[in-house]
Design brief:
- The complex is a heterodimer.
- By secondary structure, chain A is an alpha/beta fold.
- Chain A has seven helices and ten strands.
- In chain A, the strands form two sheets. In chain A, strands 1, 2, 3, 4, 7, 8, 9 and 10 form an eight-stranded mixed sheet that branches. Chain A has a two-stranded antiparallel sheet with strand order 5-6.
- In chain A, helix 4 links the parallel strand 9 and strand 10.
- In chain A, helix 3 (about 125-140) crosses helix 4 and helix 6 (about 215-225) runs antiparallel to helix 7.
- Chain B contains six helices and four strands.
- Chain B has a four-stranded mixed sheet with strand order 1-4-3-2, with helices on both faces.
- Classes of the chains: A alpha/beta, B alpha+beta.
- The interface between A and B is large, with 103 and 86 residues.
Chain lengths: ~260, ~150
């Protein structure tokens, strides 16, 4: 296999339990002239890696780390522990079912970087999808043994943008691009995902009222003053939304019934 | 408070060296969500047109929702999927995990929607066993366990 693959091999992290699979981490350049490089962390499946699919997990934000959330808190093999400089094995790690990759995307997120600082002011959905696609093409050159594997993408939150947009790049690339860039892309899965501004915001308000988080008055004010089908909100709408968001300074908006981190 | 602990861990020089990370010695710390990114310049109001295109192209699409998330709640996702306008092929039905209802699921033409009972925004963190079941069934293109 390519030399760079061997160079990316991770031996053992500080405080890491012994595990029966290989892991790799490092940078893949996505733009030579600007010096943009994305950082990945890849775990082979716990067993039978050659027969299992390859899955890329993305988190949202925009600007949040797939390694910080996805790997270390949610579905990766190594979870961080309270007050201990050690990692613990996650018995429900998703690399039980697949070869699993976490990608810090776009540049500016986590360890991913650019040598052209103005790049950080030009970020958005399009460049994120473009760079992630180039990352994948170059990653498969480094790990050619995975090129024929079934490939899936999964993610949460703002990945409701990232995942379909990257999927479309792959889908179009498979149809129009050169044969050597073909990716065996089969599907994607997104959770608690931002997909449509109008329904996402409407649903957020309905949910808060239905779960006794906001008062009848705040709910009525928002319904009276906000039209989520248009982009720019009125002052009256913003004022009503300020009252709505104030409630979520008291409880965890992302998990209504868990204690907040004090 | 998991985020506090991982920020400490991933900023350790020995951890970064083991991961082959931060080779350029960035001028800022590793953080969960970037402080380095400036403006976000483009984001479409909806990704539904892309999702429609990919479903039509035969790409498998699953959507899930932890039902205690208030940020992008299950209510929002249901409204979004209704807007997508797909025909349902299997009606709203419970799925099971260890003899308990794990959530509910509905199958549309080209899209499967699964809720996870008791999970917040980060489903695999709140309900790891149920999330792994979801992932396994997604990869296998199987229905969530009906009993």
């Amino acid at each position: 296999y390519p030399e760079q693959q061997a160079a990316d091999r991770v031996g053992r992290l500080p405080g890491q339990p012994a595990v029966p699979f290989q892991q790799y981490a490092g940078y893949v350049t996505v733009n030579e002239s600007h010096g943009r490089a994305l950082f990945y962390w890849f775990f082979e499946a716990v067993d039978d890696a050659p027969k299992k699919p390859l899955v890329l997990w993305l988190n949202g934000g925009p600007g949040c780390s797939s390694i910080g959330y996805g790997e270390a808190e949610e579905l990766g093999p190594f979870l961080v522990q309270k007050g201990k400089p050690e990692l613990k094995w996650n018995p429900y790690s998703w690399n039980r079912e697949a070869n699993l990759m976490f990608l810090e995307s776009p540049v500016g997120v986590g360890f991913s970087y650019t040598n052209t600082s103005s790049d950080l002011k030009k970020l958005g959905d399009k460049i994120t999808a473009d760079d992630a696609y180039i990352f994948l093409l170059n990653w498969f050159k480094r790990f050619p043994q995975y090129r024929s594997h079934e490939f899936y993408i999964a993610g949460e939150s703002y990945a409701g943008h990232y995942v379909p947009q990257l999927s479309e790049k792959i889908f179009d690339g498979n149809k129009q691009g050169p044969k050597e860039n073909h990716i065996n892309f089969k599907g994607f899965m997104i959770g608690n995902a931002l997909m449509d501004d109008e329904t996402d915001q409407t649903g957020m308000i309905e949910y808060a009222w239905d779960h006794a988080v906001i008062s009848d008055r705040v709910y009525a004010d928002i319904k009276a003053h906000c039209n989520f089908s248009i982009e720019n909100a009125t002052n009256a709408c913003n004022k009503a939304l300020d009252e709505y968001f104030a409630v979520y300074r008291l409880i965890d908006m992302y998990s209504l019934y868990t204690p907040v981190c004090t | 408070c998991s985020s506090d602990y991982s920020e400490v861990y991933f900023n350790r020089p020995d951890v970064q060296a083991a991961l082959h990370a931060n080779v350029t010695k960035m001028g800022y710390n590793w953080t969960h969500c970037s402080d380095a990114i400036g403006n976000w310049n483009d984001a479409p109001a909806s990704t539904l047109p892309i999702i429609r295109k990919l479903i039509a192209g035969g790409i498998r699409v699953w959507v899930f929702s932890g039902d205690t998330d208030g940020r992008i709640p299950v209510t929002a996702t249901r409204l979004t999927l209704n807007k997508l306008g797909l025909k349902s092929v299997q009606e709203w039905t419970p799925w099971y995990d260890h003899l308990q209802v794990g959530g509910w699921t509905i199958t549309y033409e080209g899209l499967t929607f699964v809720t996870i009972r008791g999970a917040g925004h980060e489903v695999p963190m709140h309900t790891p066993r149920q999330a792994l079941s979801l992932f396994r069934n997604f990869l296998g293109d199987k229905k969530m366990p009906p009993t």
